[in-house]
């Protein structure tokens, strides 16, 4: 997915999207038809667990300008394919309307997951964003993962985009993350001493039947078994391309900073599991426009303030790859216009009509980045 050649780690982004009926907004089981049509335009869409979802995969890129162009192209092609198949593509963490069901995609693996995990799998429809960043090796990936854990709630709050679900305001900016936590291997990763210890933990989960295979390691940070990359999976799919690019750039800056600390042998910040769980809940509940839990002080603090502190911390890495201005400009734009959750809630509060939420989400999905 990415390589670590040169001084700039490459990156790639996967975005998951919901397919809905253009009139009712209800999820529609058309992922195969949409993927077939996108293939005619040279874009390979991945089929997700439920048949109302598709996923795009960017090329491996070195700079965020190329990433922005790539993500906009992929969203545009996928949206056109959805329209041709009788659906609408939405960048939302969860379906805003009340779904009648989430049919599992008809492949042997997905059928097996559906049978093993029951309602957890069948009440899915969850759309996230995954950022892959190159690292030198898997032990370095574990060192980075350990150091990213305190920052994950902030990244979740930044990208929250699932406030409206089942025709109601959930009272949470990221209800996706609350539902996602039902999977046995989801949420923040444990701290591991080495890649060998990580592999032993994954083998235990597989052999015990807790997960079907290592593809079901859903932790919000995970190393790749096949490539020298680390994957950050904490985010709701962002509402806009601009937000996805800002998020990816910030993630790469965080990974580069953590990697340098790992190389220098700096100790990992002690982190109580109950505090991290509390920070996750605060992020899911309050999102960008509220308080987060400062995991150093164990006290609430404005999320935007903590994000500014994070940017200051990773600024040398952002400047090294030329992304500092992009990230600061991007975050200022999100603060001004709101992220996906804030846009959804504002649309809902106008008339308490889910059609307003759907229209807002559809416009944001293809919004051209400035």
UniProtKB/TrEMBL annotation:
Coiled coil: none annotated. GO terms for biological process: modified amino acid biosynthetic process. It comes from the Bacteria. Keywords: ATP-binding, Ligase, Nucleotide-binding. One of its GO terms (molecular function) is ATP binding. It catalyses: L-cysteine + L-glutamate + ATP = gamma-L-glutamyl-L-cysteine + ADP + phosphate + H(+). Its EC number is 6.3.2.2. InterPro entries: GCL_type2/YbdK_subfam, GCS2, Gln_synth/guanido_kin_cat_dom, YbdK. ATP-dependent carboxylate-amine ligase which exhibits weak glutamate--cysteine ligase activity. NCBIfam families: gshA_cyan_rel, PRK13517.1-1. Belongs to the glutamate--cysteine ligase type 2 family. YbdK subfamily. This is Putative glutamate--cysteine ligase 2.
């Amino acid at each position: 997915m990415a390589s670590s050649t040169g001084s700039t780690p490459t990156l790639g982004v996967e975005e998951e999207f919901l397919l809905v009926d253009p009139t009712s907004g209800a999820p529609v089981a058309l992922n195969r038809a949409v993927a077939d049509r996108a293939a005619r335009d040279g874009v390979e869409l991945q089929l997700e667990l439920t048949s109302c979802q598709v996923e795009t995969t960017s090329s491996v890129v070195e700079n965020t300008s190329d990433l922005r162009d790539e993500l906009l192209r992929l969203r545009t092609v996928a949206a056109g394919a959805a329209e041709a198949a009788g659906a609408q593509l939405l960048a939302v963490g969860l379906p805003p309307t009340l779904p009648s069901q989430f049919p599992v995609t008809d492949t042997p693996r997905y059928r097996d997951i559906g049978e093993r995990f029951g309602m957890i799998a069948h009440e899915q429809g969850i759309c996230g964003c995954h950022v892959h960043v190159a690292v030198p090796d898997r032990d370095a990936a574990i060192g980075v993962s350990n150091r990213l854990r305190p920052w994950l709630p902030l990244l979740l709050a930044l990208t929250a985009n699932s406030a409206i679900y089942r025709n109601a305001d959930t009272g949470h900016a990221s209800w996706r993350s609350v539902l996602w936590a039902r999977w046995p291997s989801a949420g923040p990763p444990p701290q591991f001493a080495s890649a060998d210890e990580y592999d032993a933990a994954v083998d235990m989960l597989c052999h015990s039947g807790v997960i079907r295979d290592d593809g079901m390691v859903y932790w919000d940070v995970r190393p790749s078994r096949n490539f020298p990359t680390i994957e950050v999976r904490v985010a709701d799919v962002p509402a806009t391309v601009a937000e996805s690019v800002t998020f990816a750039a910030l993630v790469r800056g965080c990974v580069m900073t953590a990697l340098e600390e790992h190389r220098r042998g700096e100790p990992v910040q002690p982190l109580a599991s109950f505090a991290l769980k509390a920070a996750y809940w605060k992020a899911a509940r309050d999102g960008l426009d509220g308080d987060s839990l400062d995991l150093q002080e164990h006290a609430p603090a404005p999320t935007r303030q903590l994000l500014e502190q994070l940017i200051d911390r990773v600024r040398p890495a952002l400047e090294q790859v030329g992304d500092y201005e992009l990230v600061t400009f991007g975050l200022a734009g999100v603060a001004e216009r709101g992220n996906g959750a804030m846009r959804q809630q504002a649309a809902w509060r106008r008339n308490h009509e889910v059609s307003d939420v759907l229209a807002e989400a559809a416009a944001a999905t293809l919004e051209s980045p400035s």
